[in-house]
Amino acid sequence: MSAPARRPLVLPDFPWDSLAGPRARALSHPDGIVDLSVGTPVDEVAPIVRQALCAAAAVPGYPTTHGTPELRAAVVAAMGRRYGIGAVDPTAVLPTIGSKELIASLPSLLGVAAGDLVVVPELAYPTYEVAARLAGADVIRTDGLTALGPRTPAVIFVNSPANPTGRVLGVDHLRKVVAYARERGSIVVSDECYLGLVWTGAAHSILHPEVCDGDPTGLLAVHSLSKTSNLASYRAGFVAGDPALVAELLGVRKHAGLMVPYPVQAAMIAALTDDEHERQQRDRYRDRREVLLTALRGAGFTVEHSEAGLYLWATRGEPARATVDRLAELGILVAPGDFYGPAGSAHVRVGLTAPDERIAAAAIRLR
Ligand SMILES: Cc1ncc(COP(=O)(O)O)c(C=O)c1O
Known about the structure:
It comes from Skermania pinensis. The protein is α/β, with parallel strands linked by helices. The protein is globular. The protein has helices at 20-27, 47-55, 69-83, 100-109, 127-134, 171-184, 209-212, 243-256, 262-273, 276-298, 320-329, 356-366; strands at residues 34-35, 93-96, 117-120, 138-141, 155-159, 187-191, 219-224, 237-241, 302-304, 311-315, 332-333, 335-336, 348-351. The chain has a seven-stranded mixed beta sheet with strand order 2-8-7-6-5-3-4, with helices on both faces. The chain has a four-stranded antiparallel beta sheet with strand order 9-10-13-12, with helices on one face. A two-stranded parallel ribbon has the order 1-11. The structure holds pyridoxal-5'-phosphate. Pyridoxal-5'-phosphate binds at residues 39, 98-100, 103, 125, 159, 163, 191, 193, 224, 226, 232, 237.
């Protein structure tokens, strides 16, 4: 018998389909559903960003894959101002069509292949595993690198502040990851899309001088404007870090036509240059978080981590699906922790991304 003509990819099931039952129950609540399951922004895009998009809407030519020099300069300036990251080389910045597509394709684009190893956090945004599978690589879920034994990972994904737990990795932890990766030649991909949404303490970029000593070798920081500037609908992100790795990504992405539309690049410049709309958005989420945190604790939940990001990681010490069902009876839809890994089987992820009125309704129902 001849070899198969192709081997279809085997990817994890799309977990959200399993929420159809609880969603239907929550929708039947007389005062309507409070959907805290998906972290999609609900507040309008800031006028300053919309105006920049519109002002660039007549430009007909292809955008450059590398992004305009103005956009890359705006990224470098914002990373310095907002996150204390000094001296990012503007050539080592690359705009992306949101960060999800970059994360999903990154191992493949960097030549990771079957037999290679990709490390993802124990509880993780599902796209890291998808990225490894798309490349045909093996995946290990762990937060402790000693668990890896003698195998050298090709890519280590870290995510601080984390989805789904809101956990922030301290400088010491991040330094250990960098040192481990440098000794072995592994690439660290640090997903930092919640770095601008910190509620208690401080969170550091992998490119922060206290973490990497000012040396970006082997490091890639992945950023998104979806949450901090409500630009999920625009698809606006970027990656920055090791100039050689960014050049490699740029080369492949040029061939593949993976470029950010020019008007979106213009909108990104406005969003990265104006810190005021970003602060206002952070304040909205801070208020919503306070309301939900108090309500969940009052209803007997324990909330763990959650010191940053857009989710509360909550448990009642029962299976996640039982909590999801119980909350659906109140018309509140949340995500079961098992979506993010087996270690989440007794937790639920409660999103802060709902309008104030819906957050208030959830708090009343939890009483
Ligand atoms: C941890 C994490 N990374 C990346 C993304 C993707 O964001 P986007 O593609 O909108 O930039 C998300 C979205 O929820 C996320 O939670």
